[in-house]
Design a protein that fits this description.
The chain is α/β, with parallel strands linked by helices and 199 residues long. The chain contains seven helices and seven strands; from the N terminus they run H-H-E-H-E-H-E-E-H-E-H-H-E-E. A seven-stranded mixed sheet has the order 3-2-1-4-5-7-6. Helix 1 packs across helix 4 and helix 6 packs antiparallel against helix 7. It binds S-adenosylmethionine.
């Protein structure tokens, strides 16, 4: 558990990884004033930190206490906190913006988890889902590697190798109203799901 937390901390300091998540957070195009943000499965805290830097009153939840430890040590922003928590134990209407990065891919029941995440969004809020695409595979990543450059660019190759183009099941998004944004040369999609447009 401790190794996993240290590893994620290392990864999230790769320049392309941070830039990609900054790009994903930017897809939430609205004023952060008096708005809350909850990042679920926050890991070492990358998305939560970016949301807090953008002015949101932010909390990151993770089931792994070591992740919460590292995320808390990394970040001293007044509007940012981290808490050890299993997302299954969270009640509805947690925040105006709820995000989950590289979380759906970790479960076999993606449809059910998406429903859970959606339930955590307050009415009129948004759910931000960040997941890799079928392009996150080694053959594609090698081509991008020389273009992206920056600190710890090799992490992209590692990520692509581990993912091998495996993605979340696209059909789980069908019943929601959302916009899809392409990030990192289409190796990542940020999906913004709108709660107010749900029928
Ligand atoms: C692949 S990591 C992604 C971390 C981070 N979101 C990122 O993009 O760098 C998935 C994270 O989800 C957390 N997680 C898995 N199951 C969880 C659960 N039931 N409740 C809360 N967090 C969970 C793991 O501990 C891990 O930190």
């Amino acid at each position: 558990m401790k190794f996993q937390a240290k590893f994620f901390n290392y990864i999230q300091n790769a320049a392309f990884y941070e830039a990609a998540h900054i790009g994903a957070v930017k897809t939430i195009k609205e004023k952060s004033e008096n708005k809350t943000w909850a990042d679920i499965g926050c890991g070492a805290g990358i998305v939560a930190k970016i949301a807090a830097l953008n002015g949101y009153d932010t909390i990151g939840y993770d089931i792994n206490p070591e992740m919460v430890n590292i995320a808390s040590k990394n970040n001293f922003l007044y509007n940012l906190k981290f808490k050890e928590c299993n997302y299954n134990l969270l009640g509805i209407d947690q925040a105006d913006i709820v995000s989950a990065a590289s979380l759906l891919i970790t479960t076999t029941n993606q449809k059910e988890l998406l429903e859970k995440l959606y339930s955590l969004v307050k009415p009129n809020g948004k759910l931000l889902i960040i997941e890799t695409t079928k392009n996150m595979k080694l053959s594609f990543a090698i081509k991008q590697f020389f273009k992206i450059g920056g600190k710890r660019a090799f992490i992209l190759l590692l990520w692509a190798f581990v993912r091998g183009g495996k993605t979340v099941d696209e059909s789980i998004f069908d019943r929601y109203v959302y916009k899809k944004y392409s990030i990192l040369n289409s190796m990542i999609y940020a999906r913004v799901i709108y709660k107010q447009w749900m029928y």
